[in-house]
Structure formats: C-alpha cells, structure tokens
Structure prediction request, 218 residues.
Amino acid sequence: MKKEVVIIGLGRFGTSMCRELNRLGHDILAIDTDEEKVNEVSDCTTQAVIANATDENVLKSLGVRNFEHAVVAIGDNLQSSVLCTLILKEMGISTIWVKARDLQHQKILEKVGADRVIQPEYEMGVRMAHHLNSEKIIDYINLSEEYSIIELVAPPSISGKTLFQLDIRAKFNCTVLAIKRFEDVNIAPSPEDEIVKGNILVLMGHKDDLKQFEEKGL
Ligand code: ATP
Ligand code: ATP
Ligand code: CA
Prediction:
C-alpha cells in the first residue's frame, strides 16, 4: 500500500531512503536546510523543500501533521534531531523513525517518543562482525538483546535431509522461517521439505541456540 512519508535531513542515509521509497512507489516530502541537498532529490520526491525542520510553524505550513510516517535523519546535530522528533511527536505523527549517532542520542530519542531509533554505522558494524566471524552465516539481523535471525548456507552435512529429519526446533529450539533456492524463496517450509547443499536457511531463535545449531547441528 502506498505510504506518505516525510524525510527530514538529506545526508547519505536520508537521501538513500528517499530514493528507495520512491522506487517502491511511495509519496515523499523531503526537507533539508541545504538547497543543494534538496535539489538532488527533486527527481524522486513528491515535494522537496528547503526548510528548517526545528521550526514548528514551518512543519505545520507544510502539512506535515497529515503524514503517517516520518524519518528524521539529521546527522550530528543532536539538539536539532531531538527537537524535530519532539515536534513531530506532538503533532501526532504515528510512526517516527530517527537516525542516531550513538547510544546516548538513542536514549534521548526513545525518551521523547521515537518509535524506532537507528544507528546505521553501529548496526552495520555488528552485522559485518557476524559475517566475518562465521563462514556459514551470510546475514544477521538483531531482533532484540536475546533473539536474532540468521541466514546460512546449507553445508553438505545436511544436504538431502528433510526439516523433519533435522528436527531443528526440538533439538535446538530454532525455527526455520524460510529456505532460499536461488531466486525461489520458500517462506512456509514444511517438515517434508528437503534441504539441498547450497540452499540458504533463514533461522530465528535465541542467540545461544542459534550458535549451538551452527556449531553442532551442521
Ligand atoms: P549520513 O551519515 O547519512 O550521510 P549524517 O548523519 O552524517 O548523514 P549529514 O550528512 O550532516 O549527517 O546530514 C544531515 C542532513 O540534515 C544535512 O543535509 C543537513 O543539512 C540536514 N539538517 C540538519 N539540521 C537540519 C534542520 N534543522 N532542518 C532540516 N535539515 C537539517
Ligand atoms: P563512522 O561513520 O563509522 O563513525 P566515519 O567513517 O565517519 O566513521 P571517523 O569517525 O572519522 O569516520 O572514523 C574513522 C577512524 O579512522 C577514526 O577513528 C580515525 O582516527 C581513523 N583513521 C583515519 N585515518 C587513519 C589512518 N591513516 N590510519 C589509521 N587510522 C585512521
Ligand atoms: Ca555520517
């Protein structure tokens, strides 16, 4: 479904969100104080405006209150980022996502009511560490302190076995969410589905259990 999103701050993060959301068919209002940044996204937004997003009256006059979603990607200016988030919150925007530069920034944003706080450099660093740590794991998503989703390539040791035979849930308390075979993604794997070497397994579970599976189940 088509969404209306206001994106504030057009650094690399904000700009890349603009481009991708536009590609996915959504309506975007982009705001930045920098004319050059605004011009750069004029081709991929419904409206791109040069404005200061910490000015409540400006946001009101742009009709920001009618948007369902807001993304605040104001970089290192902590004060502006927090103030802008606060104004959007008071306007009643239902989902507000904000980019933070560090943990302290993240905590403040959560206190003022950001629905989701993203620390791209930190999060990508964690993900990449997991890629490098394990040759088997090809992707890693943090769900919480305790739970995550991993993608791993099925090694020859489990090739030819069905999910029933592997019994991953009972033995390791992990759930196979999907099996990817090249372009084909099976998002509702059944017990009789057979794993073939090179298939990609998408698994969800407690981090300790996933580690156990990786070490002992393959
Ligand atoms: P990235 O890492 O994604 O490139 P960043 O977090 O390092 O970005 P910047 O590159 O500085 O941050 O991008 C932040 C953008 O936010 C800039 O284009 C800046 O002009 C804009 N910005 C800062 N303050 C405001 C404000 N009050 N209103 C609107 N835009 C703002
Ligand atoms: P991030 O966005 O991940 O916070 P960044 O890409 O914005 O990082 P910096 O914050 O400047 O970049 O971090 C780069 C780090 O690399 C700094 O700690 C800096 O001291 C270090 N660095 C830069 N040049 C060299 C060099 N020639 N040799 C060793 N370290 C370097
Ligand atoms: Ca940056």
